[in-house]
# Entry
Amino acid sequence: MTALTAFLNTGAVFLLCLVVLPILAGLAVWLLKKRYAAQLTAALLAGAANLLFALALFFGGADVRIPFAGFGFDLHFLVSGLSAAVLLVAAAVTLPVVLYSVSYFKGSKQGGLYLLFYFVSIGFVNGAITADALEILAAFWEGLLGCMTVMLLAGSVTKPRAALKMLWICAVSDLLFMFGVIVTIHVSGQTQLSAIERLPVAGEGALGCVLLLLGAMGKAGVMPFYSWIPTAAEDGPTPFLAAFPGSLGSILGGYLLLRVVTKVYAVAPGSAVSVFLLAVGAATLLLAGMMALHQKNLKRLLAYAAIGQAGTLFLGVGTGLAAGAAGGLFQMINHAAVTSGLFILAGAVELKMGTTDLDHIGGLGKKAPVLGSCYLLSGLSMIGFPGFAGFFSKELLFGAALEAGVGWFVAAMIGVFLTAVLFFKVGASLFFGPLKLPSGQRNVRRTNAGMIVSASALALFALLPGVFGGWVQRMFVEPALNLGESFAGWPKSALLVILLLAALALAALDFALGRKKAGSALKCADHLTNLPLVKPLLAAADAGKLDPYNGLVSAVDGFSAVCQKIEDGVSWFYDKGVPGAVSGLGGALHRIVNGSLTRYLVMAIAGVAFILLIYLVVML
Amino acid sequence: MRGLLLACILTPLIGAFLLPLIGRRSEKARNAFALAFVLAALVGSCAFLPTVLAGNGVSVQATLPLGLSFGFKADALAVFMAVTSTLVASVIVVYSFGYIKEYGNQNEYYMMVVLFIGAMMGLVYTTNLVFIYLFWEISSLCCWRLIGFYREEITIVRANKAFLVTVLGALIMLVGFIGIWGQTGTFDMEAMRGVHVPAWAVVCIFFGILSKSATFPLHSWLPDAGVAPSPVTSLLHAAVLVKIGVYAYARLFDVTFAIDPAFTTIVPVIAAVSALISAGCAMKATDLKRVVAYSTISQLAFILLGVSSGTAVGLAGGMLYILAHSVAKGGLFLCAGVVEHNLHTKDMAKMGGLITRFPVTAAAFLLCAFSVMGVPPFSGYYAKSMVITGAVDAGHLWIAGVFVLGAFMTVFYLMRAFFKVFLGPQTNPQAREKEPVMVASVLFLGVLALALGLFINLPAELAGKIAEVMA
# Structure
């Protein structure tokens, strides 16, 4: 391992292994699209090599400088602390997602192109996490946008709506991020992240800080940059959901959030930026939680659940407290494993049943016990059940939220309640009860081993950090953040644990009563979604009135209409005004110069008189 | 090397007049010679790269009667512009072999294209204000004939509009040149380095620059010029002609003269207005070439922002922007040409789902669009980032913010066009990519847009040399 670390530290080798190699692997996977076994082997080898490199860098670190283009664009990669930890998380989650993606696209015409760009995006993610030069970080960060667009298009060429929506929404946040990078460099006078230490959040610094955070919000898919995710869940391929909103997007968003709040800017608890982040986190958690309960399509439901989990991250880290940061990093690991695992599970359900519409399917538990077990493990971690990874991360995050203000803590508890009701609803309707097949389908179809293995691996990934929670905190979270205090072990506040358990118990009770009242597990949350304030809110959301994308499109349309009016005016000046004036002048001259000798004589005398007048004025 | 410098200018300039004669004998020979004349300028200009990268230059000077002088100089700025122009022009000439072959007036077409490149070479290499004006007007003449290529009434009206606007701008610019001559007694820019020129002269020259580089409110001729054949719109209205204005700004106000610092605020504000209004129009347009034309106006504003920011990073970014935009926007116009040539319409409402019928063109369009949008690792990203950095470093934080909005709108209208033309339901199931030479040309430009980003260090080094002169 030491030899590998030293090898990776030798100049361009770092770039070759972390960025170029995934791209080359993508090319190989693309070219091997008609040979599944070879394609799968190449993809897994590349994913494993990626994980090995990340592991070597986690233990050994790296500091590599490669001259490139000047003007802040020289390559500097620094792997230590947070970047080393996040790189390892990304590589670890990526390997099962690679396996799933190759399995999903077996025999598909567009699969090769999708996989090519997935591997390119893995290289870009590695670049973004390890880049110390801010401009290079921005380059990798924004480069993902192009990859994601092509991946969404390749996976659903007949339904480009999701790709367009994603592109426009993410372009806004990415451009704001780029502007934030430029302003941060301007404010700090430094082009390297490691040289910037807790800049004051005031004046231009406040602008730079908020812009960087908007970039993090965009990648993590929290409000207001969330609405492309449910659309992608409907139109896009499931591997894309597992790869981006499920794992890499939230990892990158979480990484930047942690970096900005704990290292780059001095975001103090109670400051305006802290309150802004807390509000974003709380709003995302609550609205996405209600929207998830309202859904009947498993993929859309999970999309909202993923958005809500990202909101939890912002709610904790946004406090600006050490516990929030530690919980945030732990939550990032948990979120990536759980959400991508659940998306893979949804993909497997889709393959087995031909649909993810929960109205038409159910009772899969006996036919697909492994999938049922995976759901149980991932779901329990997602709701923060004691002993699972989500329990440890959420205890820290909610503890920080409580310290920031009771209101934020209440929002977090409501979020836990909604997530738990959702967990019961999906579990009961999809996996338990009598088998329900879509009309026309006689039996449950088979899934391939790749999907089962990848879903199982991610479920274990969600379980193990919980079992070894203290170890993960000591070996992973604390060195990464260098917080100066330890949060390892069982939560110190018994009250927090009791409150969390109470929220879970209340959710179980609510689910039981709701199911009894509605007569169906799928409708168990109807009494919640029909609450006086919630019902019109969800109706507005269903009508697209809460979708910032629609607002963005309307604003752009309005602005372009104004621009077109101005342009019409300018065109009129050139096309009608000037020719009209010239022709009018010509007509007037033509009328004056009409061949009358008397008129010419008068004009000549007047001209001479005018010249004389000027002469006299000048001379006198 | 002095002979080579003259050859770079005179080969296309004189060669252009031989093309109609050659064309009477053989069309193939005429086409080959047209390409050879442009390639000669490209190869000759590339030969200066080692010299200018080493910090040196090559110059030719001669004294003329009436106190006039004649001079050309290959410095970093001139070589950068010359290589960029001739590189894209070479691809456009190759593309023309497929596009123009079914039309009349081909002899005049190739003559005008090559003459235009000759004028461009003269303009970028000259050290004399009078010669700048001379070559400027030659380029306007070529532009006039080429826009009116189809000889239909509408094309003649649009050609006249372009000619009148750019010539009027040039005449006002000439008044500014005369004003400078009145102050310094010379037209030789080498002798005027660092001279502070009066604001009124700067304003006069600025009229010429705005009209040539199609900046609001002197931009209106550019979208209308979309009636010209697509290689013409690509050459004149994306790759080369419109860059003359911003080049002149860099040459005159960044490298040669000292101007009032107020212009480092006034010009970016004008550029910002131009960027936003044209981007807004691009979002409304339904004619594919008008979308690309409005996009050109918007992107030219980014270049103007860079060169007018008064910072080294802004100027270098502006130069890289010229290169990135020439390649990518040239490619976009040529892609529009491939579609138009086969579908006989530019109306996007009559297009859709073409990705299955025009896969290479769609891929090239996407590559070029990504570069114009500034998606990394395309060359446009570095350029866009640098010009905005230049504005921030100059203290124009809010102007930079406006350009970030403009950058978002670029994503919006280009992807709208891509989706309308290439995605969605299939509208023209019989259409297909017919001319391999045209398809190969657009693919080359798309790949070049990406390659320039991956190897941005090479043009960045030259841009750095240009910025050093300013610093």
Observations:
- The longest strand of chain B covers residues 58-63.
